[in-house]
Amino acid sequence: MLSRIITLFMLSLVAMLPAQAAEEVVLGLSQDEVAITATFDGSRIEVFGAVKREEPIPQETQLEVVVTVSGPSEPVTVRKKDKRLGIWVNTESVLVDSAPSFYAVATSGPFKAVLQDQEDLRYGISIERAIFSIGASILSGGAEDFTDAVIRIRENNGLYKMVENSVDVEQQTLFHTSINMPANLIEGVYATRIFLTRGGEVISVYETAIDVRKVGLERWLFNLSRQQPMIYGLMSLAIAIFSGWAASTAFRILRER
Amino acid sequence: MRLRDFMQIYLPIAEVSVNAFLLLGMGGLVGILSGMFGVGGGFLMTPILFFIGIPPAVAVATEANQIVASSFSGVLAHLRRKTVDLRMGTVLLVGGLVGAALGVVVFNYLKSLGQVDLLVKLCYVVFLGIIGAMMFVESLKAIRNTRKGVAPKRKKHGWVHKLPFKMRFRTSGLYISAIPPLIVGVCVGILAAIMGVGGGFIMVPAMIYILGMPTKVVVGTSLFQIIFVTAFTTMLHATTNYTVDVALAVLLLIGGVIGAQIGTTIGTRMKAEQLRILLAIMVLAVCVKLALELLIMPSELYSIGASGGH
After folding, report:
1. A202-211, A235-244, B265-274: which range is least confident on average?
2. How many domains does chain B have?
3. Is B300 within a domain?
4. Which residues 178-237 of B are in CB contact (within 8 Å) with A?
5. Does ipTM top 0.95?
6. Run of H or E including A50
């Protein structure tokens, strides 16, 4: 008897999983690569897609779409200043294990309306949920203050953003949004997730990636600086010495005229 | 298309996009100061680079590379005017390199204790304050004396003349022991390594007040030794931290080398006391700015720093 109940329970659990979803994303990205050139000053990524379904459109709830793009994560040290002996000095520091260098959320409606808090917790969608500190070495109590500070500072720099009502959904089938990427992008793979929700529950998840990389001269210089640091350093010095000489000579010729 | 957007340049190592005109202008301004006063300008440029969003490690390393260019440009102009004491410069340089090596050891030791940032800032405030105030008072007196018609008297340093290993520094018109310049070189080298600058703003007053060199020769000689110290620093950063951004350096140094030429011309047309009082005011201004940063409550108490390697 007991085993039967468990089986039933398990079955109902399986039924709740999004894998069983009748609606799925068929996606298009305007580009799956962002090339950083010398004149790169930000980029705009168009995300558009369609919903594939085997059944008629459910009428009781509205289809909503949430799109997230997150840059490569790296650990960061957050320091806090305090007044000691009359001067402001760094006193405490917390290591935040993984914080994305860039994170953007676009939604088709108010965030609280398109996604339940529980689902947010499960998938880590909102900025606060996406950036959590695991095993942060905490010197004093409020580690939360430190993660909040990361979010606040990066929001001010335009690196973290939540744009509500920015995804257009047409006839519950076609959707489109554009995400602005700032000029101070870091190279790497930018994970892109698309969530379909109904009544605040996630019914389908689609994941893809955008490759952001330096090209041309930028790539060449970066590689040289890492692979041949001695040559790179000497080259930098040679450029400096040559420019110093060139300016001096040019001015002498100007003066002699 | 707006011009502002047009001139944005993405820096390959710093990984930020900056305005090219802004960098050219900043380089030019610091270059003028460099040519006029014989300071590398690192103590001014590095904080400005932090301010426009260049990561601190990249700012410090790239700044060293740029100073090589503006100092070289300046030194060539001074060489033509025969206002470089190569002999004195070499003695100072030997001391400077020894000091820089010692400074790196001291710096790493302090780093292991934590709070190295604070120490660097306090170092700046204390040294800039003392040097600035001393120069300001002294040059004010000198200006007053020339107005009154009092002949300026050359400072005599009894103990400096009693030391052995005397050398003749013809360009400076000095016949003194090689020990004081060596010690000055070592001390400046240590401080320069800790504070992450060429050390010109400490070297110049030390040459004037401790060694008694004429102001006109001091500028060229200081630039001469700065070239070598900063070239050494550039290579060190490029090979160990990979933080020299050559694109940023080129933008800064185009302005810098032109500025250095203009600065040298301005410098030779000014009186020595005027030159010194201007440098004193500038040094004091930076000192006050740094002191305020320590004393006034910052608007953002938290700061983000990269942890470990990239």
Report:
1. B265-274
2. 1
3. no
4. 231, 234-235, 237
5. no
6. strand A43-53
